[in-house]
Amino acid sequence: MTGPLQIVLGTISVLFLIVASVMAYRAVRAMIRIIRIGQPDGTRTGPVKDRLKTMLIESLGHTRMLKWSTIGAAHWFVFIGFYGLFLTLVEAFGEVWNPAFHLPLIGEFFLWNLFADIIGTGTILGILYLIYRRQKDHPRRQGRSSRFAGSNEGRGYFVEAVVLTVGVCILLIRALKVSSDLTDAPAWSHPISGLLANALPDSPDLLTVVAFVKIVVSLVWLVVISRILNMGVAWHRFSAFFNIYFKRNADGAPALGPLLPMTSGGKPIDFEDPGEDDVFGRGKIEDFTWKGMLDFTTCTECGRCQSQCPAWNTGKPLSPKMVIMDLRDHLYAKAPYLLGEKTAAETAPDYDVLRPSDEQAWTSGYARIEGTNDAQAHRPLVGTLEEGGVIDPDVLWSCTNCGACVEQCPVDIEHIDHIDDMRRYQVLIESSFPSEAGVMMKNLENRGNPWGMGGNVREDWIKELDFEVTVADGPLDYDIEYLFWVGCAGAIDDRAKKVTKAVAELLHTAGVEFAVLGNGETCSGDPARRMGNEFLFQMLAQENVATLDGVFEGRVPGMRKIVATCPHCFNSLSKEYPQIEGHYEVVHHTQLLGQLVEEGRLVPVTPVDRKVTYHDPCFLGRHNKVYTPPREILDSVQGLSTQEMHRCKDRGFCCGAGGARMWMEEKIGKRINMERTEEALELDPDVISTACPFCITMLSDALTAKKQNGEAGEHVEVLDVSQILLRSLAPVGAPGTESGADVGTKADDPAGTGSAATQHDPATEGQA
To answer: Membrane-spanning regions, if any (predicted)?
Structure first.
């Protein structure tokens, strides 16, 4: 069935294939060369079996894409269609020469035909839904709240058009084979194309033309992406597999919890004796690791990270998506200079001529300099518009490290690691950071806490209890099961001290033997590390490890137990201290209290007639996956009614205090804590509960402002889960327990319980 039409179109197809293949080969080779510019990272290769398993589960199972179920399902069909129906492209090269051509062996096999029919239809329906969603969520309708704000819309349209055209061609070719009686496959194996065949003519030549269109569209797509290496919306189809395979955690966990140690040349930096050529943080694009560059290349511009980012959602210039896009575009624009193909002029150009575009008027996250030129070679990685910076300082310092971006990214990009690595360079090398953060770091260095309070205040809360608390002085006795890590906030901040006392009383009631470090405790170092001051973190952490190893002297693993009320301390002690050989069994107080309730050692007996909504602390929830224990504690309290905010658990909204933002003034946009508190107040709760001292401070401050404006009831409180549990353990009728509505509202009720053990008045003050 080969005629002149088939010969002409077949010849063009083969020639086009050769050109496109050569261009694709050169593009892949160039991309690999560019990625290999990055610093080495030897932690990403094994164990191979676990990494392959993770890659297959995440890609074939679409486990991360399906966090958004309908979009994830639509994308799954497009994904399976792209790879699973690749053989239809191979078949098209035969069909353009001979319309009756079939793939050898499987061409008439009923399973292949059924698969191609169903997946081909699914691809069309899937991409139509994704096109609909892109238009429905388009920035022209939603403005800044659109997850596509800042994405390259034209590239997205191109990819969508290609997928839709190829999917339609697949069904048309199959339907034309049926209408032209060119297939012997059973009719039931091509139900959709068989139905479509009723509307098509008997025309083998038309089949050849459609096959040619399919080939041309597919090869045009290949040529276009070969010319545009930073077209992540297309290249992620290939790079995503590698990015998932090389993700930080081989077991599939996202890059949350600990920050990675500072490395240079692929090795951790020895801060006591750093090498002369050690690179501190990321000050230039070439300072990132090859995995970072693979991250940049893989970004699909889907905007899931942006839609969840608390900074972006409250008017800040930070979009995690645009940070990655800007780093990617700068990398590929600067690549010729990095590869030695071009040489930059010795002097930097005048960036003063730059002016923000209309988009840049409301966010500094967009690329300011386009193309490959000397400006790309000289521009600073972090800098203002006038400095030509790739990333604006306001972008860099807006991050709360909440982890929402990393949690939502379907291709496992490690946004926080890259942002904090850039912070490290700014702090350690450039000494450039918000001024109020400088005060915090001085306080940490000189006083061991962010507030700058004297160390002797850390034991003041103990004096307010009516039972003795053991303060560690040397190795702990073996009858002491837990060391209670109080933390800076828990020992110094008045609101957090109430939680400290509540937890201490609960442990005492349950018969748990515990001790504290008292004045021997210093900051865990989390604020310093998240700020970018790795040197200060190392100093504080090593001091703490020496102290902890001293009190746990003689104890084997399994007996070095710590309970912490602050999720930031909990994360540092459990996930980051092992990096400096500090190995302990660390639990959050909600985990331990939940266990004690389950064991019957704490029995809630007094009903608490209050409506509660629980706020997930980011460093407890997303970073460490502790979602259930706090909720189980609340569920165990009689009379308590709970209701979830619509953004909860792995989609919980930040309070605004993480990433050392607790000590940086929020000068741009709406305050994050106000946004979160308003969300909680929409449920009309009596109590906004949480399990983090930072969250308590941020939510309490916002609630106070709401009360002053008459937008919240005076009875509404912010309480830790432990305070509610302690309230439920007080005997019915005890002082302060008659009415659940006034829990925590009395000035002499520091733990928010009204129980005899924590109530303080002048008559009993001196008896403790």
So the answer is: 6-28, 68-90, 110-132, 157-176, 206-229
Q: Say how far apart CA 255 and CA 10 lie, in whole Å.
A: 49
Residues linked to residue 471 through DSSP beta bridges, in sequence order: 516
Omega of the bond leading into 47 within 30 degrees of 0 (cis): yes
Q: For 258-262, 306-310, 345-349, 459-463, which range has the lowest pLDDT when averaged over its residues?
A: 345-349
| CB-facing half-sphere around the CA of 206: CA atoms within 13 A | 16
| DSSP state letters, 166-193 | HHHHHHHHHHHHHHTT---S-GGGSHHH
Q: Are 28 and 222 in contact (CB under 8 A)?
A: no
Nearest-angstrom CA–CA distance, 56 and 51: 9
The SS3 call for residue 146 is coil
What does the buried/exposed string (b/e) look like for 670-684 if buried means 16 or more CB atoms within 10 Å of the residue's CB?
ebbbbbbbebbbeee
Other beta carbons within 10 angstroms of residue 218's beta carbon come to: 21
Q: How many Cα neighbours within 13 Å face the side chain of 21?
A: 7
The answer to whether residues 498 and 750 touch, using CB atoms and an 8 Å cutoff, is: yes
Say if strands 717-720 and 687-690 run parallel, antiparallel, or are unpaired.
parallel
163 alpha-carbon distance from chain centroid: 29
Structure tokens at 727: 């309230």
What integer best gives the mean pLDDT of the chain? 91
246, 52 in Cβ contact below 8 A? no
Q: Assign 735 a pLDDT band (cuts: 50, 70, 90).
A: very low
For 305, phi then psi, to 5°, come to -60, -45
Query: pLDDT by residue (tens digit) across 134-156?
Result: 999 999 999 889 999 989 999 99
Helix (H, G, I), strand (E, B) or coil at 331: helix
Closest Cα partner for 503 from 476, 522, 484, 477? 484
What does DSSP say about strands 514-516 and 470-471: parallel, antiparallel, or unpaired? Answer: parallel
CB 318 within 8 A of CB 399: yes
Cα(541)–Cα(568) distance, rounded to whole angstroms?
Answer: 13
pLDDT at 387: 86
Structure tokens at 163: 């997928």
Place of tokens 């492209």: 89
- CA-to-CA distance for 196 and 360, rounded, in angstroms? 49
CA distance 257 to 509: 32
Judge whether residue 742 has pLDDT over 90.
Answer: no
> What are the counts of helices (DSSP H) followed by strands (DSSP E) for the chain?
29, 11
Q: Is the pLDDT of residue 351 over 90?
A: no
What is the pLDDT averaged over residues 229-254? 96
Q: Which amino acid, one-letter code, is at 441?
A: M
How far is residue 405's CA from residue 401's CA, in Å, rounded to a whole number?
Answer: 9
> pLDDT of 658-697, one tens digit each?
999 999 999 999 999 999 999 999 999 999 999 999 999 9
For residue 349, say if its preceding peptide bond is cis, omega within 30 degrees of 0: no
- Residue 413 to residue 391: CA distance in whole angstroms: 17
DSSP letter for each residue of 121-176: HHHHHHHHHHHHHHHHT-HHHHGGGSTTTTS-HHHHHHHHHHHHHHHHHHHHHHHH
